[in-house]
Here is the input.
Amino acid sequence: MKYDLEERTIKFAEKVIGLCKKVRQDTITKPIISQLVRAATSIGANYAEANGASSKKDFKNKVFICKKEARETKYWLRLLAITMPEHKEECEICFKEVQELTLIFSKIVMNTN
Here is the structure.
């Protein structure tokens, strides 16, 4: 079976969106959810752009942005887990996946010349 990172990033975004739909929104959680969804969905969007890059340099830059967005997603997931302990387990599952994505994107950036 072919490994499809683009599909994996979409599935991750879907998982985060599903999590965020379950979270009670108030003045504290609303901005966290907004930032989390933005960062998590940006990972896949930037990876899709990277796959259509016009040069190796452009590809590497887009993948670097994926890595940055993945790191930001980890930040917002941690805050959500602290703010909403009843969703901590699901946040941790998402955190593990985005940590793996961060490592994958780091490796791609290092190996792209």
